[in-house]
Amino acid sequence: MADTFEHAPQVWTAARLRSALDGLPDDTPIHVGVADGPGNFEGYEEFVLVSAEPVETEPDEDGGAPTVQFTLFADAKAGVYYLDMD
Fold first, then answer.
1. What is the DSSP letter of 11?
2. What range does the domain containing 64 cover?
3. Residue 68 — pLDDT band, cuts 50, 70, 90?
4. 75-84 pLDDT, tens per residue?
5. Which of 56, 52, 33 is nearest to 43 (CA)?
6. Given a cut of 70, is residue 86 above it in pLDDT?
7. DSSP letters along 12-75, please?
């Protein structure tokens, strides 16, 4: 049987993000490092922030109302890439 562990990352709030951005010039690009696995940023992939908007989630299993969460969307950095033909 495979070993398991509980992954409980500290999810940032809008206030924490504002605080982290305080004092940065308005034209500072925002990059997003995506973990290679839960909590593993050693081999992270680097993306750029391309959009941010509120997204409505699906209702939970108990039939509770959907919620809206603010979502940051990232894309590959600018460059030349091979087309993925799969």
1. P
2. 29-76
3. confident
4. 988 889 888 7
5. 33
6. no
7. PPHHHHHHHHTT--TT---EEEEPSBTTB-TTPEEEEEEEEEEEEPPP-TT-PPP-EEEEEEEE
Question: Tokens 């989630």 belong to which residue?
Answer: 57
Give how far Cα 54 sits from Cα of 15, 45, 46, 51, 70, Å. Answer: 16, 24, 23, 10, 4
Please state the domain count of the chain.
1
Residue 70: band (very low, low, confident or very high) from pLDDT cuts 50, 70, 90: confident
Amino acid, res. 12: W
Two tokens, residue 14: 């809008």
Q: Would you say residue 60 lies in a domain?
A: yes
Judge whether 37 lies within some domain. yes
Q: Domain for residue 54, yes or no? A: yes
